[in-house]
Specification:
Helix 6 runs parallel beside helix 8, helix 9 packs across helix 12 and helix 10 crosses helix 11. The relative contact order is 0.12. This protein has two domains: 203 residues, Rossmann fold (3-Layer(aba) Sandwich), CATH 3.40.50.150; 67 residues, Helicase, Ruva Protein, domain 3. The N terminus is likely disordered. The radius of gyration is 21 Å and the shape is elongated. The protein has 304 residues and is an alpha/beta fold. The longest helix has 13 residues. The strands form two sheets. Strands 4-3-2-5-6-9-7 form a seven-stranded mixed β-sheet, sandwiched between helices. The chain has a two-stranded antiparallel sheet with strand order 1-8. The structure holds S-adenosylmethionine.
Length: 304
């Protein structure tokens, strides 16, 4: 197995395709049929697998949690690179195929479950005892990308990196800076907990069946502490969500939902005090500005 990354793509560039017939052979052997409703687009490209494994930075002291192993193309590579691997797959039909494909590896355990209904803290304790660090590495089912990412971020799991394949536009939203249309509450949530880096863009031909959208691999490195100080993450995200409630409205108009119309003038003064003109839109505010606004509104008793 070639472990060396062969694609030369730099940050965010498209990676070259090197399709493998192995996935097709396994699918044929087991007579597997894809379920679109479960986001089943299997990765058949060796260059992309190389890039994911390289970005995850695994070794025998580290663990990897894979969400949605499919027929195990990435799982096999994780088993070779990490000390322990746990893979959570919702589709029961894939379990015997995974048992067959992964039979040479003693360090992999497959769990049949919906990851969104799984107690990940318990899974961590059961599957990763003795691992120094654990990363999440996956080609995510696109229909549930955001709920999975938010679960991983909000549950405060001891994750080192999250290296995931997602729809290209979603990767761009996660990594976006203030001022553009991609920047929104997902960017802020991701950047509050992690440092994002787009590893490579991936064309639809890297999968079978080919999805209708382009994809990208993104690496999220968990921060030791958030880049801004707020009295409570819950209040901070309440301000962010409310500020983006209607993107075309000004921040002042959106935040009136919290302050009440009768305190609109006071709200405008508070925003100015934070260096934020009330006519600005949420998409122009940095994390630091959202943190200042959170503190000002909390001090004024406009949110609790
Ligand atoms: C995009 S495919 C990736 C398959 C494989 N890892 C690969 O790269 O070829 C997504 C996988 O996630 C599984 N899946 C979908 N929803 C899931 C959920 N809620 N929990 C766990 N697995 C899920 C699908 O059955 C499928 O195997």
């Amino acid at each position: 197995m070639n472990k060396k990354a062969s694609g030369q793509a730099g940050k965010g560039e498209a990676v070259g395709i090197a399709a493998s017939g192995r996935t097709r052979d396994i699918i044929r052997k087991h007579g597997f049929t894809f379920k679109k409703s479960l986001g089943q687009n299997f990765l058949i490209d060796q260059n992309v697998l190389d890039r994911i494994i390289e970005a995850a930075g695994l070794d025998e002291t580290r663990g990897a949690l894979e969400i949605g192993p499919g027929i195990g193309a990435l799982t096999e590579r994780l088993a070779q690179a990490a000390g322990k691997v746990a893979a959570v797959e919702i589709d029961r039909r894939l379990i015997p195929i995974l048992q067959d494909v992964l039979s040479p590896y003693e360090n992999v355990s497959v769990v049949q479950a919906d990851v969104l209904k799984t107690d990940l803290h318990e899974l961590w304790e059961q599957k990763f005892a003795g691992c120094e660090k654990v990363s999440v590495v996956a080609n995510l089912p696109y229909y549930v990308t955001t709920p999975i990412i938010m679960k991983l971020l909000e549950e405060n799991l001891p994750v080192e990196h999250i290296v995931v394949m997602v729809q290209k536009e979603v990767a761009e939203r996660m990594a976006a800076s203030p001022g553009g249309k991609e920047y929104g509450s997902l960017s802020i949530a991701v950047q509050y907990y992690c440092e994002p880096q787009i590893v490579c863009k991936v064309p639809s031909g890297a999968f079978i069946p080919a999805p209708n959208v382009d994809s990208a691999v993104i690496k999220l490195t968990r921060r030791d502490k958030p880049p801004v100080e707020v009295r409570s993450a819950e209040l901070f995200f309440k301000i962010v969500q409310t500020s983006f409630a209607q993107r075309r409205k000004t921040i002042s108009n959106n935040l009136t939902a919290l302050s009440g119309k009768e305190r609109k003038a006071e709200l405008a003064d508070l925003l100015r005090g934070c260096g934020v003109e009330p006519e600005r839109r949420a998409e122009t505010l940095s994390l630091t500005e959202f943190a200042s606004v959170t503190e000002a509104l909390a001090n004024a008793g406009m949110i609790n």
